[in-house]
Input
Amino acid sequence: MVTWIVLAVVAVLVFSGIALYNRLIGLRNQVLNGWRQIDIQLKRRHDLIPNLVNTVRGAMEFERDTLTQVMEARARAVSAVGPADAARKEGELSQALGRLFAVAENYPNLRANENVKMLQEELTSTENKVGFARQFYNDIATKFNTAQQTFPSNIFASMLGFTPAELFEITDAAERQVPAVDLSMRK
Amino acid sequence: MVVFVAFLLFLGYGFDRFYVGDGEFVFPIGTLTALGVGSVSALSSYYSGDRAVLLSTGAVPIDRALSEETTEASALKLRQLDNVVEEMSLAAGLPKPKVYVVPDADPNAFATGRDPEHASIAVTRGLLDAVTRDELQAVVAHELSHVRNLDIRLMTVIAAMVGTLALLSDWTSRGLRASSSGGGSRRSRGKGKGGGGAIILLVIWIVAILLAPIIGQMLAMMVSRGREYLADASGAELTRNPLALASALEKIEHAHAPTVSVKRGTAHLCIADPLGKSVGLKQGWMPDLLASHPPMANRITALRQMGFQE
Output
């Protein structure tokens, strides 16, 4: 009788251990995937910006500075190394783009241009995608960290060498500020 | 859901006790047959239902809609829809569903497909014209939440159970007619064994089974309404902007003409009741029992509360 009870307890422990381990692995993969999604969207944004700049260049002869700033910010963002650096440089790029759109409002022929509108939609969407990819990453990373730190999975997590995932945080004070122009680019 | 299963078990038990078997323990052959038939029909809709639904609404894949588009302004709207769907699937961490446009002037939207890997989201032209980008995002988030919460699978299981109930009820009412004309030898045998308690049970059971299709439908709608609130809430979790969904719902309610291209079977996956019945707008127990969607005012209030606006 006692042997059976011991066996049952061991079986329950083994199975719940397997379930917990699988859950942690699943979450870790989702976290990695979430991180890759952010990368993909940032790359997309970098690819779109030269298009935009070329489209508006003719009409915005007098705004060379703004355009150059956008291109420079893009170049810096492309060459960023590591998450913290990338977060800061992408933030600067967002600001440069915001300024460009604000200035573009002064050019009626640009505002009416369907190409520009389409590009603006694409950029708005990419900004959103970056934002949502970060949101998903942070949500899933928090879930992963919570799963590692709560009982009983914390026992397995530390034994099996799981480490908490780093959250994507805004490090730059300037980016925390509310942007001056609303282009419905919510973050 | 639990009520549903219990109801089904009660009716199935009665069917087998009074009709098929006459011993103490009976193999529930009648119930299993009904469940089998119901499940087969539900399963076939599970695997090919999305195609049938999309076909019946005349939905056009977004790529084709885009290539056929003549004016730049509406091409922009379509691009926006495609982008918004991609944004929301990123936010939900799901693969991007296929996007369709339904040529219908009434604002509405629905999701279909058996799992997140085979999901489709369809939006009417009327919705694209009526709402802003933020509101469109909220509506798409609501539909994607139906996909994420596996509501499509759930409603398929429920459809199977409603079908089983309908079959049991149908067979019983046929059997009643046949036995009343043919002397009912089987039934009298069953009665003779059971005694007084069995007769009362029999009466309750007959009443229940004759009402079964209606009760089944009501229970299904109850589940559907619950999932609707859930999709509203998890949609708001994706956009972090419940007020956009509230204002989109207001616009949709405002134009509450029936969505002619959406058939009854898809109603529970639409953002608003496509039948355009006025009961969707009223409150009280009658409309509450029979509607696939909760009253719009209640949904809007719930969303406003999430946005700390009431």
Observations:
- The longest helix of chain B spans residues 196-239.
- Chain B has twelve helices and four strands.
